[in-house]
Write a structure and sequence with these properties.
Elements (H helix, E strand, L loop, with lengths): L1 H18 L7 H7 L4 H4 L18 H16 L11 H5 L4 H12 L13 H10 L10 H4 L19 H13 L9 H6 L4 H12 L3
Helix pairs in contact: 2-6, 4-6, 7-11, 9-11
């Protein structure tokens, strides 16, 4: 908990400087460059296959950061960034401007709504909004917001309406350390405290959070 609190303090201290820099991706250019993305993420950024994330309406800064880190994952042989056998290869030929343009385009689209099963609402809401103090689990809403919209400046992603299967896979990867590109390891620290049931409930809860 102390590590997470310290990370947030450092982050907030840099936001004023970050806020002065506008994101300079070009939506129209991004649309022209997005054809190869459609195979997995759909033509409108709403992935038709639930193991791939919806990226429509995701924060441009977050998409840009992930593309940078997918490329870094490949160029560093998995030692840095975020390594994925598909996305790292797709990001390799992208220039910095390509990444910004694609990020701007997909962020301009609307994410399709999802649903939350009734049987996970009570437990999911408790974990998401309040966490579990006894187990040292902070509220997800502290970073991702009460409606799951995240924050652009802090590069905390929008998690509401996301495919539950994708959320589940990412929480599991944070938990086992195969994904480690989170700020100061915050998500890894949290995910290590989550049980399989916690992850299942949260993943389904976020699907319809709004």
């Amino acid at each position: 908990m102390k590590k997470i609190a310290l990370s947030l303090t450092i982050l907030l201290g840099t936001l004023s400087a970050s806020n002065a820099t506008a994101f300079d991706g070009d939506v129209n250019a991004g649309k022209e460059k997005s054809a190869t993305c459609a195979a997995c993420h759909g033509p409108d950024g709403n992935a038709p296959v639930n193991i791939y994330p919806k990226i429509a309406g995701q924060h441009a800064d977050y998409i840009y950061k992930q593309l940078q880190e997918f490329k870094l994952g490949m160029t560093s042989g998995g030692k840095e960034g975020r390594m994925d056998p598909v996305m790292s290869g797709m990001a390799m030929p992208l220039s910095d401007q390509d990444m910004k343009d694609l990020a701007a385009y997909f962020s301009s689209l609307n994410m399709s709504e999802g649903t939350t099963p009734k049987d996970v609402v009570e437990v999911g809401q408790q974990l998401y909004k309040a966490g579990d103090a006894e187990r040292g689990i902070p509220a997800c809403a502290a970073c991702h917001g009460p409606r799951g919209n995240g924050t652009s400046l802090a590069k905390f992603p929008k998690v509401s309406f996301q495919h539950p299967e994708y959320i589940k896979s990412q929480l599991e990867k944070f938990r086992d350390g195969t994904r480690n590109n989170d700020l100061n390891g915050m998500m890894q620290d949290i995910a290590k405290k989550l049980t399989d049931k916690d992850i299942e409930v949260l993943s389904k809860y976020l699907g319809g959070l709004h």
